[in-house]
Amino acid sequence: MELLLHTIQDDMLVRARKTLNERVKMVLKWDDFVPTLNSKCLTMIPWCEREECEDQIKARSTRDAISDEPEDEKEPSMGAKSLCLPHHQPEDPPIVPGQTKCIQCGHDAKRYALFGRSY
Ligand SMILES: [Zn+2]
């Protein structure tokens, strides 16, 4: 019984992870950022990790969402914020120090960060 319970929990975890992975999209240019958020996905972006930049991401994603409003009026126009800097960084493509740029501000990207809307 104990074992069965563990198996069930593992199944749920695997499914939850799968759903999460399917909802995370790699976004490598700003033009794709808001449309990806609008499709109810989280975005993984090369990011500079600057607080100022996060504020700009929040502001731009809010404004862009509002300008998109006729497409889907029910879409929340909340700005996006950083959710985490994943331990397991995507490797395809990898962040190349000095070459990979933050998709928002163009500064050198440090790591991939997960961004999503806060509801
Ligand atoms: Zn930046």
UniProtKB/TrEMBL annotation:
A biological process (GO) of this protein is: prolyl-tRNA aminoacylation
What are the start and end residues of every segment in region (Disordered)? Answer: 56-99
Keywords, A to Z, come to: Protein biosynthesis
**Assigned GO CC terms:** aminoacyl-tRNA synthetase multienzyme complex; cytoplasm
Q: Which Gene3D superfamilies match?
A: C-terminal domain of ProRS
| Pfam families membership | ProRS-C_1
Q: Does the keyword ATP-binding apply?
A: no
Q: What is this protein called?
A: Proline-tRNA ligase class II C-terminal domain-containing protein
Q: Which organism is it from?
A: Coemansia guatemalensis
